[in-house]
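idk why but the lab printer keeps eating my pages so im just putting this in chat instead. protein + iron/sulfur cluster:
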Amino acid sequence: MRKSPENLLLSEISLLPSRGKKWSVRAAAVFPNSYPVGMSNIGFLTLFARMHDFHQLYPQRFFKNFDVSLEERMPLSAFPIIAASIAYEMDFFNFVDMLRRGGVSVDARQRENSIVIVGGAAVTINPVPLSLIADAIFIGQGKNSIRRIMQVVAENPPGISSKVEILNILSKFDGVWVPAIDKNIPARAIPDDETPPFSEIVSSFSALPNMMLVQIQRGCPFRCPFCATPTIYNPFYNFSFDKIAESFERWANRIFRVGLVGSAIADHPELGNIIDYLNSRKVEIYTSSLRLDRLKPETISSLRLSRQKSLTFAPETASERLKSTIGKDVSLERLIEICEKLSPREIKLYYIIGLPEETDDDVAAIAKDVKKISDALTKTRIVVSVNAFIPKKGTKWGHRKMAPHALLQRRAGILRRLLGNVKNVRLNINYKRRSRLQWAFSCGEDDVANAMLKSKDLNELVKNIRKNRWDI
Ligand code: SF4
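predcted complex ->
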């Protein structure tokens, strides 16, 4: 059931200062997806928190399903500053739709008194689709960079200060692209933060209810050819145990669930200490996907004490040949052995179909592996999530083509047939024809940017992008 803004606000606890009456400019923090997804996204939470660093701003949140802000029920048109964090490619169009519904012109050239700034993982992979819509695009990530950008708009509010001057200042910052000033996309800003981003607000209606998320590392030391994580976040950096503990202490006994966020958590040199410390504070611990080949015995012992209810692994493929192509060799025996030691209630497994050079047999091998896991772990719920390979700009396989729709349907069908009735297995195939749009968003150029500007709805957008010979 959809929750009202009042209910959502009541579900939250926050470390952020309340605004009272001493503010002068409304600033919108937009997450073009649902409230539960946004409130579990550390990038969006960081944007919203850093807006609070400036007393002049009254930061208010917008999610896909609401036409008004959560805090004051005001439409987007009442906000001179609109900043969006876009984590997923499919949210590009949601964002444009939110601008339209909020009474804000989607054409950057036609907006005079408001400024639209976008950032986030999807934008860092490919900022081009929003280049005619956003005034400024932040390519990169990091709390300090976000704070620097927010300081400019807080001290020079659009509508009072000249928009041209604001954009001129922003265009000189690392990683900030102002398409109206420069046709060339700048290099990504390299983050310089030494303190980890963490949730400064949590909600019981978040996708990860009442959980404080803390990013324990940035980037990834591996370079799987399909994955954009190193492209977006590297250089790889482990936040120190002390800084991670400090973030947790800010919540001082108000939070009892902590999610450790990172791409290579098992490679954090202080992971054992972090888990022991959280165990001693009697909090439930959740970890992002673990690379089995990197888990040390002492970490497994600490994890066992933490009694984690759910474990996540991303084998990606079950084919020996493809494992060596992508450089991720997750042994089935090791996975089963670790799950037996940790006895989680649930394990989540992530696989990809449509990888280059994949065959039907490679996909059938996934089902075979999952059945073996299900036979070995009869008391564990096994959630198998299957995504299609989508080429991403800047990755080793960014120039590859996405597998044709009919082929992906057939491969998904193989898994449905072989795994549909396995008792403790839930199969989620996250592929439909519409997912192909992600390919155009993550690799498209000016053709996609033009289509974004002129298309009034998603159907029209797909039609316009297809005209440019995209197989979507
Ligand atoms: S798939 Fe995982 S291990 Fe590989 S590069 Fe991406 S985040 Fe790193």
